[in-house]
Amino acid sequence: MLDVVPASLAARVLGTFGEALGRGDVAAASAMFVEDCYWRDLVTFTWNLFTCEGRGQVEAMLNSQLGQAAPSGWHLAEGETVSEDGGITTAWIGFETATGRGYGLMRLRGDKIWTLLTSMVELKGHEEPKGIARPMGAKHGAGKSRTTWMEEREAEARTLGYTTQPYVLIVGGGQGGIALGARLRQLGVPTIIAEKNDRPGDSWRKRYKSLCLHDPVWYDHLPYIKFPETWPVFSPKDKIGDWLEMYTKVMELNYWVKTTCKSARYDEVAKEWTVVVDRDGQEVTLRPKHLVMATGMSGRASLPSFKGMDSFKGDQHHSSKHPGPDSWRGKKAVVIGSNNSAHDICAALWESDVDVTMVQRSSTHIVRSDSLMEYGLGALYSEQAVRSGMTTEKADLIFASLPYAILHEFQKPVYDKIREVDAEFYAGLERAGFWLDWGADDSGLFMKYLRRGSGYYIDIGASQLIIDGKIKLKRGQVAEIVADGVVLDDGTHLAADLIVYATGYGSMNGWAEELIGRDVADKVGKCWGLGSDTPKDPGPWVGEERNMWKPTQQEALWFHGGNLHQSRHYSQFLSLQLKARMEGIATPVWGMPPTYHKG
Amino acid sequence: MLDVVPASLAARVLGTFGEALGRGDVAAASAMFVEDCYWRDLVTFTWNLFTCEGRGQVEAMLNSQLGQAAPSGWHLAEGETVSEDGGITTAWIGFETATGRGYGLMRLRGDKIWTLLTSMVELKGHEEPKGIARPMGAKHGAGKSRTTWMEEREAEARTLGYTTQPYVLIVGGGQGGIALGARLRQLGVPTIIAEKNDRPGDSWRKRYKSLCLHDPVWYDHLPYIKFPETWPVFSPKDKIGDWLEMYTKVMELNYWVKTTCKSARYDEVAKEWTVVVDRDGQEVTLRPKHLVMATGMSGRASLPSFKGMDSFKGDQHHSSKHPGPDSWRGKKAVVIGSNNSAHDICAALWESDVDVTMVQRSSTHIVRSDSLMEYGLGALYSEQAVRSGMTTEKADLIFASLPYAILHEFQKPVYDKIREVDAEFYAGLERAGFWLDWGADDSGLFMKYLRRGSGYYIDIGASQLIIDGKIKLKRGQVAEIVADGVVLDDGTHLAADLIVYATGYGSMNGWAEELIGRDVADKVGKCWGLGSDTPKDPGPWVGEERNMWKPTQQEALWFHGGNLHQSRHYSQFLSLQLKARMEGIATPVWGMPPTYHKG
Q: Do A142 and B217 touch (CB under 8 A)?
């Protein structure tokens, strides 16, 4: 068989590596990495999400963490093939630590480790009750005054938050809070999800009516229950809302609707939060041990403060408050901004016979959805990937195994290809006056998302409207807002009955400021971004998303969120970190960066 | 490789068989079967569910059906292994007909066909939009006055049944109606499901509170969305109710709650039903082309007419109306009957400190749930089966491939084994006076279910209560009901505050009588049962479940139902039969039996 040689090589390297770790020989273990190596650890060694970059960082991490991790049982994963391509040998691996079971992906350059991903699968003795270990449901045998599943669920709903306290309070019940809540439930961590809306899924339902997911279905599965094969590629917003609502119900989450968190305070002595919430008009004080902000990775809406905004006679609102085009049929609208929301809103306004102008203030990266699916996601997340045996879980780990520090190098060829195949499309946009970019280093959409979470539009049709002049386009800065419209810095006056500020969002720690206070928000610093020192992602380099899904400088405060992919994947690691703490397992964190970028 | 020889044999036989069929040579094709063969066809050749028993029936069927079926492309299924065991070679096969694509299982004895299963997968040109063909969801590009998914769903819900007519009306929204409705939706067949309860799932929720499914989770999946790995083995009734409710929503079924069908009449000229329904107090007249009774395979409750029932001073009701034990704590109850419901109700009453006596009027077959799972279902429906690569769909087809005429021979060894391993349990029951049986020919539970749908208890604990005397047991017939209890034919007087008649159900055509009239019910005859000439399954032998999931003597009237397994599996074939008719595809039915057992 062709793979005998790579498999032998991988087995030998892994065996030697495991032996070195087993006898505590950090020098020998570190020497097995190439100098410019990357070891990304998700919770197994570091109790953190941390990428060791270079052999020196590997050695430093192991010197600190090896004793408590006490890894053993390194082996090539069963049922997977070791592959070799261009001198790189790639192998799926399994192992254990003192407290957990891990899975990962190892890439060798020659006979040395180039990249290593180690990820926590489960905590020993605290495995999820699934598959062969699933609950019985029916209680066989008989007993006096037994309670039923329904009675137990009702009793839990009645008491949790009142006579008993949740271990975790999740603020925000979108996909992030729901995915995390589902995993915590399976791990037996008492959790309440507090959501301001009336129904699970409303954070999608309440957005503008033509909204559909920009990511395709294969990328969007939640944990435990996958979308059926009949599910649309790009789910309409109300349909994803219904799915989240049913998921919340059948996964038995303690999901408090119509609930607003009013204040939160951490008692450093009692190691407990005091959170005052308004639950449908009733004030309830919760005392969770951990607080998770899952209020959307985008943070609070950034409403700009242009001169003269108060004088405008028409309707004006942030894109997050835009109700859709229906009220402005036959009227004039100006949309300030040129990213995803701006494009979607402009297209919907045009479709409803609104005279709409987009004001582009800075360059924007555009990728056609079809091209992004084909060249950007297709290998991991597509029907073809499914047919070739790729699973969502494997795809997530392959993606996670690519170190952030070199990810842009993997991304550039994708966008070079897209630029080539869609050349005519981009030429048309430029002819229409659209100001294009391809990211700071031509690395395209996904790096922009990871670095700043903004600066792009995944084209599902609005670009053609711009090319055709149906959505009017103006480049420039806003000089002022006047009673009947917008004045740009070149003197252009744009008449408007409606102004939509599609001006983006702040950092997630803004939510912490609002709920807990400025001091805690500053202690934590900016959320999201890698420190790439590219626009809107200031350095220094930290090599992981700042403050996301991992410990922060504020004890017992966590941030969770992102798209459906990230909500699914990272909820696994956040839930295991929380479960370990609940069970009193020691969790010595390695590689906590200092606070950067306050406020 | 070991399977080279069986695979060559199977390929050769299938090739020769396909060639004979291809040139219309019925004699040659029939001669390829052993004399005592079985060919079970699900819709592909017969537009029926029909088992040809013996070479003569194969020949007769082919003489009638081969021309229109025009099968071609017979091949061994990709990715499956041909196996050989004890002289029997087993192979998965694929083929086409003039109108559809088929899949099946062939067993050879030597080089002749012993059993053949042919099942319809899809109609050509009418494939389900799934996988690579799933809908886009988002409508890329832009257009004036486009409608959204939500607007289209709302418009459909508003108009269907009023300004537009459903092609199919399904009466009853339990698992049968829901599974069929989901498949019809995917096939684009406009369908309304009429359900009398307030919410989907209520037919489970409204039963006695301790009820859990008696079948394990692996056997219970619905089409399209499988239960997650975390789902309990035996789902509590309220939990399965919630699942059905969410399924109905996310599969976008037109599910009318609080809707009672009052009358139905078929116009033989217009080929259309007129069905008057009460929808939440409003009378609506529907004109579907097809009517499906999915009101429960058990038919209407059979309330006995014992002497003196009117004189009873306490509470009395059929088991289907039993609300659970709570109102009778500290009191006395008598349960007439000794099958599943009787046992469950007795156990729940005992648990709530009710003094309960079971009256056993006839012998009952008992199997411990654990043993049934291990020996009866384990090879096809279990966690072990999943781990060994068995899928629900394959398991369903393997099960379907065992001809009803010889199924009892496959079943007997299972129950011989159970009798052996649970010998002490059965001895205990006999010591307690329980009257046991093992089915007419010792073939056990599943044959009883298929033949009569009754006569057994899957033990989840009540039997031990009987062994221990906690549930009191009396054998005998009811002589009369008196003011304060029950008198048996041996003169025993059983004092009672509550009498539960766990006396079973009638045939499904009783529902047709109620809704349409006695003439149609008689025209159709008895539903369910194989004609095995064993107790409650009178002959003559018909070799398939009577009137279930296939054409009946009443044009455009269908019966659908059964457990979750049957609701899942047979909804595939019923949906394809209905879709073919909607599309005007010729559906010449072979092997329609005359009416048996009226009323």
A: no
- Report how many helices (DSSP H) and strands (DSSP E) chain A contains, helices first: 18, 25
Question: Angle B423-431/B404-421 helices, nearest 10 degrees?
Answer: 80
pLDDT one-digit tens code per residue, B534-588? 999 999 999 999 999 999 999 999 999 999 999 999 999 999 999 999 999 999 9
Q: Nearest by CB to A351, which of B130, B142, B247?
A: B142
Token duo for residue A287? 């005392």
Q: Which of A231-240, A576-585, B299-308 has the lowest mean pLDDT?
A: B299-308
User: Angle at Cα A336 formed by Cα A333 and Cα A341, nearest 5°?
Assistant: 90
> Which of B568, B534, B566 has its CA nearest to residue B548?
B566
- For chains A and B, CB pairs below 8 A equal 190
Pairwise CA distance, residues A496 & A492, whole Å: 13
Find the closest chain A residue to B182 by CA distance.
A230
CB contact under 8 A, A186 and B137: no
Looking at residue A147, what is its pLDDT?
Answer: 86
Rounded to whole angstroms, the maximal C-alpha distance in chain B is 83
pTM recorded for the entire structure:
0.94
Q: What is d(CA B178, CA B19) in angstroms, rounded to the nearest whole number?
A: 41
CA distance A289 to chain B (A): 26
The position carrying tokens 């006898």 is A23
Helix (H) or strand (E) holding A575: helix A564-582
Closest CA–CA distance from residue B392 to any residue of chain A (Å): 15
Whole-number Cα distances in Å, A42 to A73, A400, A570: 18, 9, 9
Minimal Cβ distance to A235: which of B137, B209, B370: B137
**pLDDT for position A593:** 87
Mutate: best of B207, B250, B343, B564, partner A, most A CBs <10 A: B250
Give the separation between CA A511 and CA A527, rounded to whole angstroms.
11
The pLDDT of A8-27, averaged and rounded, is 97
Q: Which residue has the tokens 């430029």?
A: A430
ipTM over 0.95? The verdict is no
Write down the residue that tokens 């400088």 correspond to.
Answer: A553
Which residues of chain B have a CB within 8 Å of the CB of A228?
130, 224-225, 251
Nearest to B209 among A131, A141, A150 (CB): A150
The Cα B29–Cα B54 span in angstroms is 13
Sign of the Cα torsion A449, A454, A458, A464 reads negative
DSSP notation for B487-551: EETTS-EEE-SEEEE---B--THHHHHHHT-HHHHHHH---S-----BTTB-SS--SS-TTBSS-
Flag if A461 and B140 touch (Cβ within 8 Å): yes
- Among B407, B418, B410, B443, which residue's Cα sits nearest to residue B535? B443
Most A CBs within 10 Å: which of B230, B238, B350, as the mutation test of the A interface? B230
Q: What pLDDT shows up at residue B51?
A: 98
CB contact under 8 A, A135 and B210: no
pLDDT, mean over chain A: 95
Q: At a CB cut-off of 8 Å and minimum separation 6, what does B482 contact?
A: B308, B311, B312, B493
Write down the pLDDT at residue A598: 65
Instruction: Give A-chain residues touching B150 at CB under 8 angstroms.
Output: 209, 236-239
Candidates A154, A207, A229, partner chain B, best to mutate (most B CBs within 10 A): A229
What is the C-alpha separation between A120 and A258, in angstroms, rounded?
35
Tell me which amino acid residue B592 is.
M
A3 confidence band (pLDDT: 50, 70, 90): very low
- How far is the CA of A33 from the CAs of A14, A27, A111, A466, A550, in angstroms? 11, 11, 9, 51, 26
